[in-house]
Write a structure and sequence with these properties.
The protein is α+β, with helices and mostly antiparallel strands. It contains 8 helices and 10 strands. The protein is globular, with a radius of gyration of 19 Å. InterPro entries: Kinase-like_dom_sf.
């Protein structure tokens, strides 16, 4: 067995679901999760995500991912079991086989990406998500009066990036439902625009692809502009806070170019 298994206590926690474990292969994904691994085992394999069982954001996000999972299948791989003790909270997913999506110019994945965003937008808002109001942009708007433009009753994924869109031979999935929320329907297509620009597409082309998303075609232009300005401020704040992470500056450049394309001026703080 791979000795990266995080201790005999963890193995004892998952053993009722996995049976005997023959191999434990940590993955490179799940940057906000303490354990992400493919577990080859008697009853599996399974893809396992786990975090320390301590109050706070990481535990809350994993619990939320387990709660939303029944409502987002088969767009997301199914959670097959949940285990918890005083030390760990773990989810066991059905394994999938695919590659991360390609958002760059010339990619053949774009129609699939649009389809996935449309499938997210078509999900009904389940009761469990009713109180999960999307508020991450609230402190970056220029005036509190703008926040209602970001509200809505749509199910949002809000973590669009190439690593979370997985393309297989015969299927495609959206993984890592760590923080789904309820908000304005245009937000997920808008985040697709941000990621396409970050992948070196020009803003007009990125918006043209978003235009194939149902939620984008009904979006209020003023609401989108408020979102764009708030996103610029958000990424500027993140880049200033984490100057040693150059990808954050690249995201600033992307959203600033989008703001310029839309004629949205965002003065430096």
């Amino acid at each position: 067995m791979n000795d990266s298994l995080p201790g005999p206590e963890f193995e004892a926690l998952i053993q009722p679901y996995t049976g005997s474990v023959s191999e434990f292969r940590p993955t490179s994904h799940g940057l906000m999760t303490d354990v992400t691994a493919v577990v080859e085992c008697e009853n599996g394999p399974f893809f396992v995500k786990a975090v320390p069982n301590r109050p706070g954001g990481r535990r809350d996000s994993l619990v939320r991912e387990g709660e939303i999972n029944p409502h987002v299948r088969p767009l997301s791989p199914a959670v097959l079991w949940r285990a918890e003790d005083s030390e760990w909270v773990a989810l066991g997913f059905e394994p999938i086989h695919g590659r991360r999506a390609n958002f760059r110019p010339g990619s053949e994945d774009l129609p699939t990406l649009v389809d996935l965003v449309n499938r997210i937008g078509a999900l009904p808002l389940p009761d469990v998500a009713h109180d999960w109001t999307e508020t991450r942009w609230d402190r970056f708007v220029s005036d509190e009066a703008e926040t209602p433009l970001l509200r809505g009753n749509s199910m949002l994924y809000v973590d669009i990036n190439p690593s979370n869109f997985v393309i297989g031979e015969d299927n495609a999935w959206v993984v890592d439902w760590a923080w789904p929320t309820r908000g304005a329907a245009f937000i997920d297509p808008a985040l697709l625009v941000v990621q396409l620009i970050a992948a070196k597409r020009n803003p007009a082309d990125a918006e043209a692809w978003a235009g194939k998303c149902d939620a984008w075609t009904h979006a209020d232009s003023d609401a989108v502009n408020v979102f764009v300005a708030a996103t610029v401020r958000m990424y500027r704040a993140h880049a200033e806070r984490f100057p040693d992470q150059p990808w954050r500056k690249a995201m600033v450049d992307a959203v600033e170019s989008w703001a310029e394309h839309r004629g949205v001026t965002v003065p430096a703080a």
